[in-house]
Automatic annotation (TrEMBL):
May be involved in transcriptional regulation. Residues 72-99, 100-127, 128-155, 156-183 form the C2H2-type domain. It is found in: Nucleus. InterPro entries: Znf_C2H2_sf (IPR036236), Znf_C2H2_type (IPR013087). The keyword Transcription regulation applies. One of its GO terms (molecular function) is zinc ion binding. SMART domains: ZnF_C2H2 (SM00355). The keyword Metal-binding applies. GO terms for cellular component: nucleus. This is C2H2-type domain-containing protein. Keywords: DNA-binding, Metal-binding, Nucleus, Repeat, Transcription, Transcription regulation, Zinc, Zinc-finger. It comes from Cyprinus carpio carpio.
Amino acid sequence: MAFIKVESEELKIEEVFRVKQEETEEQTGLMTVKEESEALNETDEKYKLEKHYEFITEENPFTCSQAEKNHFTCQQCEKSFNLKVILIRHMRTHTGEKPYTCQQCGNSFNLYGNLKIHMRVHTGENPFTCQWCGKSFTQKVSLNRHMRTHTGEKPFTCRQCGNGFNQKIHLISHMRTHNRETELQSALKS
């Protein structure tokens, strides 16, 4: 019986597998360190390229010679993209493809960035910390939402009564009270 230690510096996860001596790497599904490193680097490079393309395509005044070369159109919904990589990512909304799988729990994601965020569940990493109370979060969007509890900001306003809410879900829940009132009034009139 041999022990194989698998470490991923990128994700800061360590696993130890017990493997019978006669089992090969092919049978265990493990990659050599070089193969794993190459696979992670390739995935990371694709992620960096996706991020770069997102930046240059979101109404930024910067241009990229690669982005201006072609025009790609989705055959299912006719939406157009400057870059093939963005079209490929968009196609996942139609196909449901989730090519990035968590090795810890098996959850799959359509974007590599979402897998990286998910991995924080396993590592316990909370890189975004509230400067007011010290509470920390796995995502910046969660910290921003939390900050509204300190600032009192209520960006979501009810069109019917003018009440403000710090989260969209709270506004949606509030809107149901108006719908119930309308239903009740209709029932009383009948």
